[in-house]
Amino acid sequence: MATRPRAPASRPAPLDDLEALRAEVQAASTEAAAARKLAAESNAMIRDLHKALMEPQPGYEHSLLERMATVTIGIESGDRTGRILIKLIGFLGAIASLGGILYAIRDGITGGK
Fold first, then answer.
1. Half-sphere exposure of 77 (CA within 13 A, CB side)
2. Dihedral Cα 31, 37, 43, 46, nearest 10 deg
């Protein structure tokens, strides 16, 4: 009878597979822990940002976001008021020019009398 050659005597194949699986589980566990730590840090930063924007700071009655909204509304109102004043000045200038033209025409017809 012929004998079959045996596999090397280092370790049987199933134990090698088990060690590879253990290494994969350990790597996945390490990655999961790092992901949990990153998520916790991100949540803390979001809470700090929310607190800074939405809660009134010491010495102020309103939150930073509410104060920024008030400033923005004031700027937009001032911009609108400025445009209205410029148009009004242009309109008054046109009326003054028209009055001057009519005065000049009247003086030209009557000869300044």
1. 6
2. -100
pTM over 0.70: no
* Each residue's pLDDT tens digit, 3-17: 665 555 555 567 778
Record the tokens describing residue 38, joined without a space: 């990153």
- How far is the C-alpha of 33 from the C-alpha of 26, rounded, in Å? 11
How many residues would you count in the chain? 113
Name the residue among 53, 73, 72, 71 with its Cα closest to residue 63. 53
End-to-end alpha-carbon separation of the chain, Å? 148
- Tens digit of each residue's pLDDT (9 = 90 or more) over 20-71: 888 899 999 999 999 999 999 999 999 999 998 899 988 989 998 999 999 9
Task: From 74, 53, 73, select the one nearest 65 (Cα to Cα).
Answer: 53
